[in-house]
Request: fold
Amino acid sequence: MSELVALSLGSNVGDRVGNLRRAIEELASFLRIEKVSAFYVSRAILYEAQDDFINVVVLGRTDLEPLEFLDRTQTVERDLWRIYRFRYGPREIDIDIVFFGDRLIDSERLTIPHIGAASRDFVLEPLAEIAADLIHPSLDRTVGQLLLDIPGSDRTVIQRYDG
Reply:
């Protein structure tokens, strides 16, 4: 059965937009992409002494199971030369599974919905752009409602995704 998946992608090393575009192209090999948000510039959080991120959200459908899907997204990260420097550090590419249908998963390898999905405007703003009515499965609130809870966004749209 096909599941609707929301992914948050970010990059703050090298050709940030190029990294994101290549990741979207690779994701299309196992995700039927339905919508892609604009690209947003976001300040780094948790470790602020690094370059700004470019973020984008992708919405699509897959027939894979969640852990198999996670493995495939991690392969995309490796293929795009992601280097693990330290937790919350700079990244060539970061792919987070925000939602996987209405599933709730809390395992050692995977937490869905993503732990920061309800409180991070760099996820909620681009997601609201393409799916404001999508419901957070454990909070029973729409993405648009959750975004309203976050004071003033400092996101800047730098370009639209044109495929």
Observations:
- The radius of gyration is 15 Å.
- Strands lie at 3-11, 32-36, 39-42, 53-62, 94-100, 105-106, 111-112, 135-136, 141-142, 156-159.
- The chain has a mean pLDDT of 87.
- The first helix runs from residue 16 to 27.
